[in-house]
Amino acid sequence: MTRKPTLPPDALRPLTADEDAVVRALPSVLYALPRAIDAQMQREQQLSNTEYLSLMYLSEAPDRQLRMHELASAIEMSLSGTTRIVNRLESEGFIKRLRCERDGRSWHASLTDAGLARLEEAWPTNLDAIRRHFLDHLKELDLKKLAAALRNVAT
Amino acid sequence: MTRKPTLPPDALRPLTADEDAVVRALPSVLYALPRAIDAQMQREQQLSNTEYLSLMYLSEAPDRQLRMHELASAIEMSLSGTTRIVNRLESEGFIKRLRCERDGRSWHASLTDAGLARLEEAWPTNLDAIRRHFLDHLKELDLKKLAAALRNVAT
DNA sequence: GGGATATACTTGCTTCGGCAAGTAACTTAA
DNA sequence: TTAAGTTACTTGCCGAAGCAAGTATATCCC
User: Fold this and answer.
1) Which of A33, A30, A107, A121 is nearest to A70 (CA)?
2) B36-154 is classed in which CATH architecture?
């Protein structure tokens, strides 16, 4: 039972009413919402969100390829998780693995034409899912500030 | 390959620049952030977020107990997932299952004193995780509006 | 009252993800 | 130049969650 030692007293500062309201709404957004988006993507496109993101980041990369650890950090997954995602996408022909010429330990995940086509087929569903589950509910917010805040959260 | 038929044209309406900025930042927030919060809770408190939420909602319920499906909907998990969470928490003595007197098919998950103590031990970590990973990055936002929007997303 | 249906939960099976250990290839330093 | 260390990726093992099927109880309707 190695628990963290006592937290600094600041951690116990009570939440303001507004913060509390945000915190109360958070589980829905952080836990249920990703599952809902994933489920729609899976149902309508047979792609998980991480698979979709992989195709997307690859499509935007120079030469449509990224080294494994670059892809991992783009999709914010562990390297082992990324290995498996690439395995799946490779087995369906959407990605090819290419040896890296400059570093024999390294592989490039390279988006195939089929992979690009798959992405183009899938993105309307992804956009629809994000709109329906998320964007459409934010009408009252200042999106510019929200985007900045979310980028800030991201780091 | 049963794919959804063509989406309504509205789904293809392009994103505004602000919407796009939000969407770009979304994977970090919806996928990486929950993992980060979970990891901190697991590391420092040996509790998953769903376990923590279960204890929390039970502590707030009348008689500190809820029927399984009530708990499931509170924590927004499937019933089978809830069964397993309750199994885990029960095996550690934090929850007891009590037969429902009015309905023989039903069980109450009931928070024990040990469970309440566990919750009280864990909440500062949870609060700290939420603050550090999320709340502290929202300084620029109108939290009242954000809370309303998030509640809106939740439904 | 008793069969058909519905409800509340549990279990079996599968998938996904992380960590830690393993392997191969590169780099550094003696 | 070769042994030690580091890096890039993969594999083995595990836990968590969902769906679909199973079980037990309740309700409905004749």
Assistant:
1) A107
2) Orthogonal Bundle (1.10)
